[in-house]
């Protein structure tokens, strides 16, 4: 529905190509496209105005008008300017105090509770001992939600009986952390409107009582023009230290980050991606700049894969594949690797234009199909995994029983594995098979 | 017009009774401090879009080129979106010229009429439950207020004397089922649910079966929030719809897209995606009690022809009103 900024500028470039000289009027056409694209990306209109003025200045100063490829030059200027505004440095949480209090604030539905759980997971990975505190005493089942998330990730959740004011929940949470030697308190607060004075007062009182080291404003990446007003209002009343931009796995451009950063100077601390508790990423200004420009997020994808795939193991599997010795054991390992990478759909979704494939892979994980496959393979003997042709009727029954599946499912896996091997053999002659390609076949897609 | 009394922002003591006014908030949570409202329930604020427009157009001075530029900017600031804004302003300018308009007031009239006409033409604000049972499917991205909207609509339908059930087909988000159950208890309406992680299609099937068996007027089906670019989740939604359709042809009668007024231009992609997969019949525009104007809904209504049927205007159970194009445009331009 929207044309990306890069595409818009591409169009201009081709129109300008062949022109001996580019006039200031041509530049104005380009700037108009930039303006529209930024507005479509939900950058606040005032921020857009200033931004476009700066790009114009730089474009003229950089002699774009006489340059060889003005379109590309303009894209580069816009990109650099975006990065400059979004901030070059990373925001590291300052959690020196013991216990340090980290307070999540924001509008309703921005994703505070999910982000709180994600932060707990992340901090624990960093060797911290977090305590989640359920101080959203208003939304029905908000406390249950945090308790369930805490259970899922194995982080303790502090709750108080129904009717306890949020301030009291926060205070007692801090006390519990002190007694138990937990060093980070993550405070989940109720969503509230920035124009709701009474509710904003509550946050001010909580801040006074527990003195948070970090107050993170959680903002939905889909937020429109109001993002500035919202952030300014929270910032004016509370010592906000950073932003968390959530739902970045969606297809919103995330212009709100640029708006808020320009208006308040607040750094973006994290990006929330997906509903899984490991979907929290550090912020990279250049990547968000590319996203606002509509250039996809290849870098994040590559990094995710590198972080999680054991390179040696992958190469070994590839070698076996080439030598036509790819066994069910290798396949089992492939499943493992993919699982480690986190939500597959999200991962593949980072590649522009790969939405469909992402869906199929993610569904396989969500529906538990992947787990069943694992269970079946785990119920085989090592010998059977290496030589599936051994598996006849009675072994099939045993494997089905052992894995809690049916012989039909075992049959299907074996049959499709055979097909997958065949397919891979044909690949092996030429280029390497795609990661997950064979898996897709096995899942019947 | 009606302004609710504003309670002092003192936090209730532990275990204290729910504060005034008597709230229908579930007993397991606390009532928020009350806020005022008026109009369709929309609060007026002095510094909003309306004041800006009135400042631009309200004067008797003749409308100039600059006037229209400023109108454009005001619409953009209300999240109407660049494309829809340009279309609206162009149409308003045409109307202004045809009507022989001269002053800023004339320009303002041309613009409001244009917006109102467009909203009304596609049937905004009209919602008819229809013959029993009516299956109403609620869809939308995460965090727009689906569950709360269901509670509010159920409250409304019950008050009108309808028999209603809720169905917890959001089996994914932690505690989503509990959240709906709490509302069901509070409203005294049955909640059809399975365990967390169950197949949402199966829940939808149960819901339709229950609606038939019990002769209910309406069953309101909650679904998990999902981003429209996640194809497998959208496929799941399409499946939920099919399950209902197969059991009862012509159902779900209503598929309501719950759209957060704070949402920017992504709202268009949301409406487009959910319309394609779930056949959206109407929009519920929520969180209009903040400072956001929800202008993206104008773009959705205009470009996709999907009417806005309800407006969420506050945190109280009664704060859901049929969308009123007149009141909405009035509010956009109110002082």
Summarize the structure.
The complex is a heterodimer of chains A (445) and B (335). With 445 residues, chain A is an alpha/beta fold.
3D architecture notes:
The complex is a heterodimer of chains A (445) and B (335). Chain A is of the alpha/beta class and 445 residues long. Chain A folds into three domains: 5-86, Four Helix Bundle (Hemerythrin (Met), subunit A) (Up-down Bundle); 100-295, P-loop containing nucleotide triphosphate hydrolases (Rossmann fold); 303-442, Orthogonal Bundle (434 Repressor (Amino-terminal Domain)). Helices cover 58% and strands 9% of the residues of chain A. In chain A, helix 14 (328-340) runs antiparallel to helix 17 (369-378) and helix 19 (393-403) crosses helix 20 (407-429). Chain A is flat. The two termini of chain A are 28 Å apart. Chain B has 335 residues and is an alpha/beta fold. Chain B folds into two domains: 49-121, Up-down Bundle (Four Helix Bundle (Hemerythrin (Met), subunit A)), CATH 1.20.120.140; 134-333, P-loop containing nucleotide triphosphate hydrolases (Rossmann fold). Chain B is built from eleven helices and eight strands. Chain B has helices spanning 49-57, 65-77, 82-98, 104-121, 146-159, 176-187, 200-213, 231-247, 266-278, 296-304, 325-333; strands at 134-139, 164-169, 191-192, 218-223, 254-260, 282-286, 308-312, 320-322. Chains A and B meet through helix 2, helix 6, helix 7, helix 8 and helix 9 of A and helix 2, helix 6, helix 8 and helix 9 of B.
């Amino acid at each position: 529905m929207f044309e990306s900024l890069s595409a818009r500028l591409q169009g201009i470039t081709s129109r300008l190509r062949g022109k001996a000289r580019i006039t200031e009027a041509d530049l104005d056409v380009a700037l108009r496209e930039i303006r529209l694209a930024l507005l479509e990306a939900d950058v606040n209109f005032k921020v857009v105005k200033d931004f476009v003025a700066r790009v114009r200045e730089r474009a003229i100063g950089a002699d774009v008008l006489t340059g060889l490829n003005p379109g590309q030059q303009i894209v580069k200027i816009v990109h650099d300017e975006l990065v400059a505004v979004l901030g070059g440095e990373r925001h590291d949480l300052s959690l020196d105090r013991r216990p340090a209090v980290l307070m999540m604030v924001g509008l309703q539905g921005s994703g505070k509770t999910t982000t709180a759980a994600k932060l707990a997971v992340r901090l624990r990975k960093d060797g911290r001992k977090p305590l989640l505190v359920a101080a959203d005493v208003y939304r029905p089942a908000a406390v249950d939600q945090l308790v369930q998330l805490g259970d899922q990730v194995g982080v303790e959740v502090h709750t108080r009986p129904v009717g306890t004011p949020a301030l009291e929940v926060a205070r007692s949470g801090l006390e519990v952390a002190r007694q138990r030697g937990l060093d980070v308190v993550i405070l989940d607060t109720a969503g509230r409107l920035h124009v709701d004075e009474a509710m904003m007062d509550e946050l001010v009182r909580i801040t006074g009582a527990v003195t948070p080291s970090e107050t993170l404003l959680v903002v939905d990446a889909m937020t429109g023009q109001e993002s500035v007003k919202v952030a300014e209002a929270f910032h004016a009343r509370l010592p906000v230290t950073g932003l968390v931009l959530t739902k970045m796995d969606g297809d919103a451009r995330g212009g709100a980050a640029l708006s808020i950063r320009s208006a308040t100077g607040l750094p973006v601390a994290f990006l929330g991606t997906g509903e899984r508790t490991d979907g929290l990423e550090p912020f990279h200004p250049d990547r968000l700049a590319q996203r606002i420009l509509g250039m996809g997020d290849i870098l994040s994808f590559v990094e995710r894969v590198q972080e999680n795939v054991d390179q040696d193991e992958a190469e070994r599997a590839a070698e076996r594949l080439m030598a036509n010795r790819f066994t069910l054991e290798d396949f089992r390992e492939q499943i493992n690797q993919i699982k480690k990478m986190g939500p597959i759909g999200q991962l593949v979704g980072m590649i522009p234009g790969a939405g469909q494939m992402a869906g199929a892979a993610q569904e396989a994980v969500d529906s538990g199909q992947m787990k069943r496959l694992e269970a079946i393979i785990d119920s085989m003997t090592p010998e059977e995994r290496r030589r599936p042709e051994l598996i006849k009727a009675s072994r099939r029954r045993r494997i089905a029983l052992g894995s809690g599946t049916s012989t039909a499912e075992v049959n299907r896996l074996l049959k499709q594995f055979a097909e997958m091997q065949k397919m891979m053999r044909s690949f092996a002659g030429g280029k390497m098979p795609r990661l997950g390609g064979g898996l897709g076949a096995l899942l019947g897609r | 017009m009606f302004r609710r009394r504003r309670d002092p922002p003192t936090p209730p003591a532990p275990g204290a009774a729910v504060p005034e006014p008597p709230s229908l908030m579930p007993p397991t949570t606390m009532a928020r401090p009350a806020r005022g409202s008026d109009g369709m329930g929309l609060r007026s604020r002095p510094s909003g879009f309306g004041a800006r427009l009135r400042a631009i157009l309200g004067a008797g001075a003749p409308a100039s080129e600059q006037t229209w530029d400023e109108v454009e900017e005001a619409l953009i600031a209300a999240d109407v979106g660049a494309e829809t804004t340009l279309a609206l302003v162009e149409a308003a300018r045409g109307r202004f010229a045809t009507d022989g308009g001269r002053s800023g007031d004339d320009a303002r009239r041309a613009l409001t009429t244009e917006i109102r006409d467009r909203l009304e033409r596609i049937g905004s604000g009209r919602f008819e439950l229809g013959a029993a049972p009516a299956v109403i499917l609620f869809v939308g991205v995460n965090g727009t207020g689906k569950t709360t909207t269901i509670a509010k609509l159920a409250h409304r339908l019950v008050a009108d004397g309808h028999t209603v059930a809720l169905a917890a087909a959001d089996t994914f988000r932690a505690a989503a089922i509990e959240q709906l159950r709490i509302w069901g208890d509070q409203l005294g309406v049955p909640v059809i649910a399975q365990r967390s992680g169950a197949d949402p299609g199966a829940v939808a099937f149960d819901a339709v079966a229950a609606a038939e068996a019990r002769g209910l007027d309406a069953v309101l089906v909650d679904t998990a929030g999902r981003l429209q670019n996640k194809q497998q989740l959208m496929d799941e939604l399409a499946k939920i719809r099919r399950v209902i359709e197969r059991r009862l042809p012509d159902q779900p009668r209503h598929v309501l897209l719950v759209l957060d007024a704070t949402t920017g231009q992504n709202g268009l992609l949301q409406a487009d995606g959910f319309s394609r997969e779930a056949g959206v019949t109407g929009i519920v525009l929520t969180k209009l009690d903040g400072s956001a104007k929800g202008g993206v809904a104008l773009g959705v209504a205009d470009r996709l022809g999907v009417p806005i049927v309800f407006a969420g205007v506050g945190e109280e159970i009664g704060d859901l009103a049929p969308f009123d194009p007149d009141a909405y445009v009035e509010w956009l331009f109110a002082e």
